[in-house]
Amino acid sequence: MKISSPPRRRTAGFTLVEAMMAGTIASLVMAGTMATFMFGFRTMYKDNQRLATNATLRYFIAQVSKETLDATEFYVFPNYKSLDGNVDLVGDVSSLQADAFGTFLAYGDCLVLVTRVSATTTANVRQIRIYYRVTTDSEEIAPV
């Protein structure tokens, strides 16, 4: 006589191997997604910093341009230490150098804008504005 075993009932579910494979694939997808997200986040941060720097620079250039147009005269000094109380407007001021197009340029780290009451050079000074970099090395980057 043959004794038959009771039929096996299959229960719904995943085997251990299937669950491990699904977990591995999900982990790889999450790692790729996080790497892409972090790359995008870093790029966005750098772009925001660049845009903020550009906006600040545009504001500064607009302000200096406006004040230069309002000034009666201006002087460019090699560095701010030239303004020591005994300023010689002949010897201390940066010399003009011609570029390839014949335009005369003055290079320096200190800009002095003088606004007089009237356009004559003997009129009283109404305002003096000084912009300078706190460095003596022309290769060094310093704030204005």
Please explain how this structure is put together.
This protein has 2 domains: 15-70; 71-144, no CATH class. It is built from 1 helix and 5 strands, in the order αβββββ. It has one helix at residues 16-70, and strands spanning 73-77, 96-98, 104-106, 110-116, 125-132. It starts with 15 loop residues before the first helix and ends in a 12-residue tail after the last strand.
Alpha-carbon Rg, integer: 36 Å
**Strand residue content:** 15-25%
Major β-sheet strand ordering: 1-4-5
Number of domains: 2
Order of helices and strands: HEEEEE
Q: Span between N and C termini? A: 104 Å
* Fraction in helix: 25-40%
Average pLDDT, to the nearest integer?
A: 84
Helices and strands in order:
Layout: H1 16-70, E1 73-77, E2 96-98, E3 104-106, E4 110-116, E5 125-132
Can you tag this structure with a few keywords?
144 residues, alpha+beta, two-stranded antiparallel ribbon, 1 helix, 38% helix, rod-shaped
Short characterization:
The chain is of the alpha+beta class. It contains 1 helix and 5 strands. It is rod-shaped and about 130 Å long.
